[in-house]
Amino acid sequence: MSTDIRPSLGLRPVINVSGTMTSLGASIVVPEAISAMASILPHFVEINDLQRKASAVIARLTGGEAGFVTASCSAGISLAVAGAITGNNLLAIEKLPDVVPEKNEVLVQMGHVVSYGAPVDQAIRLAGGKAVLVGQATSTHRFHMENAITDKTAAAVYVVSHHVVDYGLLNLKEFVEIAHAKGVPVIVDAASEYDLKIFLEQGADIALYSGHKFLGGPTSGIVAGRKELVRHAFLQNMGIGRGMKVGKESIFGVMAALEAWENRDHAGIRERETGYLNLWKRTLDGRPGLTALIEPDPTNNPLDRLRLIVDPDQAHITAWDLADALAKGSPPIIVRDHEVEHRYFYLDPCNLHPGEETIVAERLAQELDKARASNEIIATPIENRSRHRFDGALRWPD
Ligand SMILES: *Cc1c(COP(=O)(O)O)cnc(C)c1O
């Protein structure tokens, strides 16, 4: 591990067991990407030529015809939607997000309108798209989607995420079949997925990935798929894409991260992560009020997490108070707490430096011992947590 720069900046040395989170700096960037970025930074390049080289690498790894690098997967949604709306009309590209178009409706299943840190539908609206919600939160039937397609439909967006409703909706194959029957292109937000090929294989016209999640690249987004649609998305760099641009270092960094991904020892990493999960489970098993379960990733990424269910009567602390105590203590441990009101959170093993797994185990034991020793049950009302959720952001930078 390189030397830790955080203390000299006055930043807390957080340990990330929550997953790839933008708010924590996404992921550990792989050494190949770091040296690629350093090697290109001093030089001038013709950016579109570099993007052409990136296109070849993206095409090879995704099975798409072409690709390019942008600022984020969120930017990729906006650019792909914009491309579907404007085509190669340069004037229409300059006019966005104002649209004069015959087509700007973008279908998305209601159960897919989630927040990945910002709302999915905003990325569509930013591009001049009008998000047309299909079905209900927990059900989309074929007739919903078939009837939602009109001559104003420009594209359909499909989101793959642990955040989406995971039952009762159309799967990607059906979604594609219905869209394609009426000539509507399908854009898949696969920001956080390991499999770089499967969505295009299942018929998506564009697949979008984050460069900074599992790939361990710099902060960036990858747009891949059918050449004409990718080109139309790329042309947005002369319009709304300007503010979403990436520099040479990110383009080249993503190329290196993709190539490193191809050669990564995926089985070895899985084994190491399994070791971490087993260590944490051993630390927790047998403690009163705790249930530790190793569970697979909900979107089938080759990754397991530890689910820690907390019974406050026995453990003398609620799941959310435990999560907060871990985050406040030293060193701070940030857990995956999206569903903590259900009395559990997860520990994600995929963003740890070697040795940090032991610190996580020690901190868990420490906080649990402390809670058990307390005569009162540590139980802050969950409403307080949600009420104060944005306090820090609203006070920023103070
Ligand atoms: C993380 C995520 C995004 C946002 O990706 P960025 O590259 O950080 O913009 C979008 N969609 C899903 C499903 C995500 O998980």
From TrEMBL:
Cofactor: pyridoxal 5'-phosphate
InterPro entries in alphabetical order: PyrdxlP-dep_Trfase, PyrdxlP-dep_Trfase_major, SelA-like
Pfam hit, one: SelA
Taxonomic superkingdom: Bacteria
Single annotated GO MF: L-seryl-tRNA(Sec) selenium transferase activity
Gene3D superfamilies from the UniProt entry: Type I PLP-dependent aspartate aminotransferase-like (Major domain)
Keyword line: Plasmid, Pyridoxal phosphate
Chain positions with N6-(pyridoxal phosphate)lysine modification: K213
Similarity section: Belongs to the SelA family.
Protein name: Aminotransferase class V-fold PLP-dependent enzyme
Organism from which the protein derives: Rhizobium johnstonii (strain DSM 114642 / LMG 32736 / 3841)
